[in-house]
Amino acid sequence: MWPTDLSEGLMKKIQGAEKAELQELPQIKERISFLYIERCLINRQDSAISITDKRGTVNVPAASISALLLGPGTNVTHRAMELIGDMGTSVIWIGEQGVRYYAHGKPLTHSARLLIKQANLVSNTQSRLMVARKMYQMRFPDEDVSGLTMQQLRGKEGARVRSIYRTYAKETKIEWSGREYDSADFSSGSLINQALSAAHACLYGIAHSVIVAIGCSPGLGFVHNGHERSFVYDIADLYKAEITIPISFQVASKEPEDISGAVRHEVRDTIAKRKLLEQITRDIHYLLIDETGGIPDVTSESIVDLWDEKKGLVKNGVSYGKELDEGNEAIEIGYGIMIEGEE
């Protein structure tokens, strides 16, 4: 055991800044998209993460980042991960053979409203089909897809994506033989396929960070199914044709030495210019609750109800079943219960 005075002194030194309340944190739309770092040590300095490599140390406010991408040679301390989790920042570990999503922070909301709505919609065949059609309608704004089956929608989308690939291949004079890659061996793919893999991985990370930040489930997809990130793939697919596919062909045509790094920089800049974090948030609200206006702020909601199969929701913090008590008169006081005759 540490001596009392010594242990207290150590605790004072490592306390750091107080944990921020949820409503004090920047909303997902106010954050930068992602920060990629490699071959460094990540520690904590108050409410910032300190990044140290051979060039020195820089402090970055953790709450300003949507997703933190950790590349090869990265070491992170427990205190840093504690801060990152409290700030709701997503963490993605990146290996030399591609990008894999390993963790995420807490949601930036106390409300389960969107999660409940998502679960209700995906659990019913008709409502799930409705949301899936809305996703495809966003890709075909000038066509009516309301009467198409999922098979017909998949066929139209496949033809559209193949056409986009051919168009950009022709514009950039890149030989294109199809989307071919090995998820276990990033370097085995052609330059353009490496670029596409790196770009899509960044998009998946951003989509995932927004989904968990607003309280939705990454695994409850409407078009994709059965994977822990099915909804991530649903959402990311909405933006590939406009963002990651053209960026990949444009960057690959320049044949940079570090294809994945060059692609990440372009994706990051485009995400910032397009305000994609805000757009994804708005699009998810449109898909799940049909809100097309501003983005609802549910970060401060902290409502806990009890479910009832007949009444729907009933008040929490109430002592139910008082009629079952024998000889005791229960009196409600706020969220507590005082039994007559007891202190």
Provide the fold topology.
Elements lengths: L3 H11 L17 E6 L2 E6 L2 E6 L2 E6 L3 E6 L3 E3 L1 H9 L3 E6 L2 E6 L9 H10 L2 H15 L10 H23 L18 H23 L16 H7 L3 H13 L6 H16 L1 H14 L16 E3 L3 E3 L15 E4 L2 E4 L4
Parallel strand pairs: 1-5, 2-6, 5-7
Antiparallel strand pairs: 2-3, 3-4, 7-8, 9-10, 11-12
Helix pairs in contact: 5-8, 6-7, 6-8, 6-9, 6-10, 8-9
How would you describe what is shown here?
The chain has 343 residues and is α/β, with parallel strands linked by helices. It folds into three domains: 14-103, CRISPR-associated endonuclease Cas1, N-terminal domain (Ribosomal Protein L15, Chain: K, domain 2), CATH 3.100.10.20; 113-289, CRISPR-associated endonuclease Cas1, C-terminal domain (Four Helix Bundle (Hemerythrin (Met), subunit A), Up-down Bundle); 306-339, no CATH class. 41% of the residues lie in helices and 17% in strands. The protein contains ten helices and twelve strands. The chain has helices spanning 4-14, 78-86, 113-122, 125-139, 150-172, 191-213, 230-236, 240-252, 259-274, 276-289; strands at 32-37, 40-45, 48-53, 56-61, 65-70, 74-76, 90-95, 98-103, 306-308, 312-314, 330-333, 336-339. The chain has a four-stranded mixed beta sheet with strand order 1-5-7-8. A four-stranded mixed beta sheet has the order 4-3-2-6. Helix 5 (150-172) packs parallel to helix 8 (240-252).
